[in-house]
Description:
The protein is an alpha+beta fold. The protein has 10 helices and 10 strands. It has a domain at 3-137 and 249-326: Bira Bifunctional Protein, Domain 2 (BirA Bifunctional Protein, domain 2, 2-Layer Sandwich), CATH 3.30.930.10. The strands form 2 sheets. It has an 8-stranded mixed β-sheet with strand order 1-4-5-10-9-8-7-6, with helices on both faces.
Amino acid sequence: MNKLRIHQKRSLINLIRNFFVDQGFFEIETPLLVPSPGMEVHLHGFNTNYVDQHGMIQDYYLPTSPEFAIKKALGAGFEKVFEIARVFRNNGELGSLHHPEFNMLEWYRPGDYTDIMGDVENLLGYISANFESIITHENFSWDRGIRRTSVSECFQEHAGIDLEAGLQNPGGWRQTAIESLGESIHDDDSFEDIFYRVWMKLVEPKLGQHQPEIVYDYPASMAALAKLKQPERLWAERFELYIQGVEIGNAFSELTDSQEQIRRFEQANQERKNLGYPAHPIDKDFINAVGKMKPSGGIAVGLERLAMVLIGESDIRQFFLQSFEESSGAVNRI
Length: 334
């Protein structure tokens, strides 16, 4: 725990709230007990249950993101909304960039992911002009704006790999990745396994090193909750924000096809089962809301990570009153 860092985080949160209110966004409040924690394959939720007066038990989770609840509001007619929410991740990493609970900024607006890109640029410009604790780096500038680079361009620039050719020729993709990585790849590694090995080793550390950088248009298999680009449908309308090699935010042109959404969720649950993870409940109210949403863009930003790159902190645990690694209540490792 670091008293100064906690004060700085609160100042940043207040500044962000002022920005969105001034931009005409409505601040929404979503529940902390939800019927499904989220449907991403590698995310795990904290679960609990509610017992009513008749002894009937209902299962609930702490949210890994407020996204499902916010989209229910979008389906009910809300438009420009934001929330600074507490979120929770179980069975995950602890360390300099990860914490089991943290603050997530999410906002949504009519339009698509290009509109969110504009919001990101405006928000970072506002923060860099008004946040008193921001530090300067010799090789990094907030005044250069945001660099926008496609994922394909990132692979070509930093790994020497033609990603589109890899999508169309899995055999050639595997061999090219081996040559770029300089290491072997297991025969049963999937396209996504290889993608992230290349990404983590050769691409991600080089992103956003001189200015904030948006990397956009991920392979369609990594669409999650995003629309696919037409007409080729090879790419998802998704982007991530990087600052100094750290992933800060993840954004989509939001999927508004409820049948496609439930198909993806069922596929995600099958992948969870294949990996030995329990399936997550599918929130039917969320599925119904997706079909009622107007075309929208949305983004999730990790606030503690944003604070880290703004003020030069290297350990996310400094922003919390308690680090899980410091807890005296832990008695067993699973």
